[in-house]
Structure prediction request, 246 residues.
Amino acid sequence: MTFSFPPPALAHGHDLGSVLQQQGFAVLGAHAVAQLAGVPLPEMLTWCPGWATLPPDNYLRDGGRYRRRRHSCFRVDADQVQQVVHRPHWQPLEYNALHGGLERHFEPMAQDLVAQPSWLKLLSWLGQVCSGLKGAQPWFVEAHQFRIDTTDGIGRPTPEGAHRDGVDMVAVFMVAREGVKGGETRVFDADGPNGQRFTLDQPWSLLLLDDARVIHESTPIQPLQPGGHRDTLVVTLRAGGFQAEA
Prediction:
């Protein structure tokens, strides 16, 4: 038997900041994301086919072949968004026990996406949300396109388990969910027993996380039909610079 838990009550634009401050995370529906970011939902939906051509992630230390991804970096300062020179993704072992301490070189996101004014608007809005939560300042942003597939029977969205990312804010956009079961999102207080579990399924719905206050994970997915997959866009924002090996 498969259980699907609906997301918690959706935050509204006028109370997004207070919800984040109160519980350390917030969930927004796709229409609220479009309205707050100033990017029409139909335009965001035109980005979705780009997930079908992601190259394999060759760094999975569990031996899996279920993840495809691209990765690009930006600097966001108010309404100024600048893509920076392509760089490897790196996390310390403290935050990623499976893949930490390793420079991972992924292919950059396609320029026909990241050069769009609407893409820059989306990142600028996330920067504004993060500044409202942590104080106005420049944000060092990493964007990851993920496809988790079920070619080998199971796919793991978070093979490292429940974790923090070592940043200030994490944004997880659900891009597509087709022909799979599982993939339940779990969010827990970093310093307490409270937690929630739910399943995101609406394209361009959003989970926002205050990374200092909560840990998160997504459960494995299994196929309901051939070609089943789960696509997400994960955007992290960090003050002071990108994570880099000391």
